[in-house]
Records
---
Amino acid sequence: VADQVDARALTVTVLGGTGDQGQGLAYRLGCAGVHVLIGSRDPERAKRSAAAIDAKVDGLVEGAGNDEAAARGDLVIVAVPWEAHEPTLRDLTEQLAGKIVVDCVNPIGFDHRGPFRIEVAAGSAAEQAATLLPRSRIVGAFHNVSSSLLMDEQVDDLDQDVLVLGDDRPATDVVRALADLLPGVRGVFGGRLRNAGQVEAITANLIAINRRYKARSGIRITGI
Amino acid sequence: VADQVDARALTVTVLGGTGDQGQGLAYRLGCAGVHVLIGSRDPERAKRSAAAIDAKVDGLVEGAGNDEAAARGDLVIVAVPWEAHEPTLRDLTEQLAGKIVVDCVNPIGFDHRGPFRIEVAAGSAAEQAATLLPRSRIVGAFHNVSSSLLMDEQVDDLDQDVLVLGDDRPATDVVRALADLLPGVRGVFGGRLRNAGQVEAITANLIAINRRYKARSGIRITGI
């Protein structure tokens, strides 16, 4: 089903698009020919970030304030820091109504012993998004892809899968098709939204693996 | 380091060794030439289960009651159902003192919408084991390997990694070497024990993937 969706025809907004993960996704989607809108609280910063990426890609990458970027996107990726997740989404409920909203936020903290999962009252960032945006179609995805790999222009095979979580089957199909646009990536249905928490949190394990093995690790699902 | 450990020289006990996961691990370790003790509350049931596996493997597979099996093992794998996790370990604190205890229990429930993560007060089954067994060396591992694949004698390449979690580095090295004995498996250090919860819970996602893709899925870590 995912390959029947023309994800290239979508205008994709990336909220938090000036951060590492957001820039990385904007770059890879832009490479695939997608029209990308980078959203930021500061419109000028968004425009500068977008211009830098636009110069490298086949698609069209523009920048705007969060309000405008959310309103103009067909599909909206949330790539803000965990601390900004709730206030950002609370401000954009109207702009995001009716749209597919892809949450890729990982509630992870760091201390002297390394990375760890932050407990979320709603169960996960994705479920918190579903609570804050009851009129949007919430999907969780892109949690485990290293931003360093995404931004590395020398890497043309990301060699990993993107787990796509959600209760709205057609919405997960669209996001799987979007993930398929990244080089070396398969979008794999990964379960319902209530099982998003562990996919977000396992990013802490990947960070621990990166430290131990001096790597930029990812996850492949075998047997499918 | 893991390849400097001779895991074949260990006597490995599998508590809950008459269940699917326990039998599967006993079979694969037995195939690798390991001396395996299957533990069960019912010694006769353990002996029957062990005899069935012993007939198929290169190693020696024996059965015994939990007490005896725990006492005789050099390393003890806990593969009991989640409901039995606390009472089983509470009864064996003395027998397990000083030993490497490998927790592979997944606190997962099922309802009409499929599998889901069960919240654990300690954070994870592995951390609950650490609380119950303060004198043992707790490691989390083997959470994500399909028991059906483990038991399938036609499968000679499991094609996945085993994430090994723990705060006792030498203990995780031993368990990585043990995981390396499974065909097509790498034992990969996956972080501290406090990051075990998401590795346990992601088994719910793999079950959802199995249902969607009619598969027996597993996880590979890429980039290392």
---
Amino acid sequence: MKKFDCVAIAGVGLIGGSVGLALRARGLARSVVGFGSRPATLATAHERGAISEIGADLASAVSHAELVVVCAPVAEIVEQVRQVARHCRPGTLITDAGSTKVDIVKQLEQAALDDSAWGREVRFVGSHPLAGNEKKGPKHADGELFSGRLVVVTPTAATRPTDVRTIAEFWRALGATVLEMPAGEHDRALAATSHLPHLIAAGIAGSTPEEFIALTASGWQDTTRIAGGDPALWRQIMLANRDNLLEALDRFAQHLTEWRAALVAGDGAELERLLTEAKRIRDRAGS
Amino acid sequence: MKKFDCVAIAGVGLIGGSVGLALRARGLARSVVGFGSRPATLATAHERGAISEIGADLASAVSHAELVVVCAPVAEIVEQVRQVARHCRPGTLITDAGSTKVDIVKQLEQAALDDSAWGREVRFVGSHPLAGNEKKGPKHADGELFSGRLVVVTPTAATRPTDVRTIAEFWRALGATVLEMPAGEHDRALAATSHLPHLIAAGIAGSTPEEFIALTASGWQDTTRIAGGDPALWRQIMLANRDNLLEALDRFAQHLTEWRAALVAGDGAELERLLTEAKRIRDRAGS
């Protein structure tokens, strides 16, 4: 990948901070400018070396950037990208790290047409690094967070192939494997592989009678780990991918009726069949 | 704890092998005799130092033991304990490591009355170390498996207090914290904290469309990890605790209807309330 003179990161929490650490540790950008609404977060990111400069405001932070990575909560991404587009110079490429893609990509395609200040030479390509965890904030940032992880890039019919290539190379340079797919396909898949598991993990935690908490062990802890994630962020993700999540939830609930019937009937063979099928799929996915 | 001259372990897989390693590493038993139906498993346990001797048959393996730990699959525990009771000498104490307790404890109390060969001087106290994981076999055994973990001991009205004390001291000597409770209370709690999470983890894995597996990440992997466990063992556990598990499953399904309603209504505040409540309980339980 060609080295960037300047990359700007909007939102320097776990993901944004890790992007900065990875860029700087690998010498991929001469300067990394961070900006965001919380001075303490920016200060921590700077102390940890995730950013080389703190932008005084959004306009100055992005004014020299060739690439801007917007790592805001899902519900804030569209507005942030619009503001970035208003203030960066022609030729700047913008990407994000949001867990849902359809709403963001569609709204930004429309914004590029509507916003008179959005130069035609500013382009957005949606990204989703599958690399978060239940932690938050720049103190947990990790320059190897993307190593060996998957990043989905979601071009549209209007996206220039050279821009997709640049964004894909960017994530690969950070250690990730990149998969290109339409935003709709991404959102359907992630509803099943990320958003439903989050809802279910929270459902297990939330419905465990508190008097039994002392009797939890590693099985409960693994199964519910992601329920420790930030409620405000997950509320946004669930709402942004609501239809797909409802479909995944109903498929799961339908599947549970098979388990229930096997239990009610005391049907050991059927229980073992369900357990074996689940183990086969689980074992395919790796640890 | 007083040091044992001889402890016998029936079933030297993950749990039995770990008991042996822990006893020997801590110098708590002069000899540890293992026995079981698979010569290869016994050989591995012996090579790893989990047992000092391989019993030629059950009768000779237990004939000198002061304590016998039965680490068989749940459905085989009652029969194994009955056989042990027939062959060990008066004064021998027997415990198990089964994940369910009511059936085992009840059937063994009845057996002690029925079995003419079951001397009154042979006593059983039920145990459940909350220390398994999705791995199996003596190659994964670990002498520190019980360190800092919980072991539930389930005496009945007929159990002698000195026997409960001996068994509790035994697990504590292996590094565990011991909790005494009635078998019924144990089974109700474990249905919610272990057996339901297993069913749900398997349900998530089993209902994930296979074309989406490539898009799983750490959230899915954590949530479904225990679905990689042994189907034959889990079939037995689920059947042995069927009524409590059905109750926990129905409580969970009822709880899911709240999530579904919030999603359908697009009610972000309610979603955040559910997520926050789940996080509160999750955070209480530790990592």
